[in-house]
């Protein structure tokens, strides 16, 4: 069974991840803290920026597509109700089980500062919840 997906919602969710990231990592929001914790400079962030942006856009599309499909499967499996609620709960569960768990594991072995892990994991949670809100408001 291939779940029905609203591809316009997926595209909007993809774009939302770019908006969330540009706000989250803006220097006046968490960008300065992120640079300090990661050991990056402003100049470092400019190197390979276009490539990183294109890859992020592709990966964000894949994330939004998987979230939309999984939310539809979860919604159908549990017998309906609010698709918006199904999408948000699915996003939080997927974030906790895959994104947060993997970030924490890798960051521990890479010896990254705990503050950097928290900052990045929180960004991923906000990104996925915003994606879920968009996907949840416009089901297939």
Short description:
This protein has 140 residues and is an all-alpha fold.
Description:
- The two termini are 15 Å apart.
- The protein has 140 residues and is an all-alpha fold.
- It has six helices and no strands.
Return the average pLDDT rounded to an integer: 95
Number of helices: 6
Q: Any idea what the shape is? A: globular
**Low-confidence runs of at least 5 consecutive residues:** none
The assigned structural class equals mainly alpha
Order of helices and strands: HHHHHH
Sheet having the most strands: none
| Secondary structure: helix percent | over 70%
End-to-end Cα distance, whole Å, is 15 Å
Topology of this structure?
Elements: H1 7-24, H2 27-38, H3 42-46, H4 49-77, H5 83-109, H6 114-137
Helix pairs in contact: 1-4, 1-6, 2-6, 4-5, 4-6, 5-6
Name some characteristics of this structure.
mainly alpha; 82% helix; 6 helices
């Amino acid at each position: 069974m291939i779940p029905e997906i609203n591809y316009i919602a997926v595209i909007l969710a993809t774009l939302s991840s770019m908006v969330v990231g540009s706000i989250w990592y803006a220097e006046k929001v968490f960008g300065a803290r992120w640079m300090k914790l990661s050991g990056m400079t402003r100049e470092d962030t400019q190197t390979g920026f276009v490539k990183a942006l294109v890859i992020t856009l592709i990966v964000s599309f894949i994330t939004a597509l998987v979230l939309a499909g999984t939310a539809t499967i979860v919604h159908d499996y549990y017998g309906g109700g609010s698709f918006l609620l199904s999408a948000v709960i699915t996003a939080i569960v997927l974030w906790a089980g895959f994104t947060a768990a993997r970030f924490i594991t890798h960051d521990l072995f890479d010896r990254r500062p705990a503050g950097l892990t928290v900052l990045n994991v929180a960004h991923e949670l906000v990104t996925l919840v915003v994606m879920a809100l968009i996907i949840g408001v416009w089901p297939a």
